[in-house]
Amino acid sequence: MNIERITQMEQRLERATAAVEAMEAAIEQYKAVRDDIASLDAYLGSPEWHADRDDDEAGRLPKELKRGVLSEDAIWNLLERHREVQKQIL
Predict the structure, then answer these.
(1) Every domain of the chain and the residues it spans
(2) What DSSP line would sit under 13-78, residue for residue?
(3) CB-hemisphere CA count at 13 Å for 41?
(4) CA angle, 51 as apex, 46 and 54 as ends, to 5°?
(5) Quick check: pTM over 0.85?
(6) pLDDT tens profile 39-87
(7) CA atoms of 70 and 54, how far apart (whole Å)
(8) How is residue 90 annotated by DSSP?
């Protein structure tokens, strides 16, 4: 019956519209952090990163300072995930 079909198609339209809107928002958010990703890529393994890590290991940084960027894994894992996302986009 056409009422059933129309109801089904309306539900599909609503789901698809919501998904596309969510994807558009996610793409905009992702594009907004491209410079951050590039900066993190350049920072990892740089002389500055090594100096900051040395300061951390020597106890010269405040204990309350967040320092996830000083672990190689945090940035490396982000960069790997970034590369995988780029492959999916292409």
Answers:
(1) 1-32, 33-90
(2) HHHHHHHHHHHHHHHHHHHHTHHHHHHHHHHTTSHHHHHHHHHHHTT-S-TTS--GGGSHHHHHHH
(3) 11
(4) 125
(5) no
(6) 999 999 999 999 999 999 999 999 999 999 999 899 999 999 999 999 9
(7) 9
(8) -
